Amino acid sequence: MGILSWIVMGLIVGMLAKFIMPGKDPGGIIVTLLIGIAGSFVGGFIGSFLGFGPVTGFNVGSLLLAIGGAVLLLILYRILKK
Predict the structure, then answer these.
(1) Which of 9, 58, 63, 77 has the most crowded Cβ, counting Cβ within 10 A?
(2) Could you give the CA distance from residue 52 to residue 20 in angstroms, rounded to a whole number?
(3) How far are the Cα atoms of 29, 67, 75, 80, 81 from residue 26, in angstroms, in the given order?
(4) Distance (Å, rounded) from C-alpha 73 to C-alpha 27?
């Protein structure tokens, strides 16, 4: 995936993660984008480690791995911000 694809997927994944875990979070669209992109990397790493495969593009498996990674990062972000 190219850099533009990572940004678009990160934005989508970040918004879905915030939809799954609503609440007051400092930061706006930039933090959402960064959590989504980082979540894609984390989800891909965890998926590869567990044998599910990496995040390879816009497909259901990759999207689920990326959302899982973004939700995990959002949980850690909220814990660290307290």
Answers:
(1) 9
(2) 22
(3) 10, 20, 13, 12, 9
(4) 14
Q: What is the pTM of this model?
A: 0.77
pLDDT along the chain (82 residues), means of 10: 72 82 71 79 81 71 82 84 75
Distance (Å, whole) CA 18 – CA 5: 20
The domain in which residue 64 lies consists of 3-81
The single-letter code of the amino acid at 71 is V
SS3 58: coil
Determine the longest span between alpha carbons in the chain, in angstroms. 35
CA pair distance 66, 14, nearest whole angstrom: 9
CA atoms within 13 A on the CB side of 69: 27
List the structure tokens of 56: 């390879």
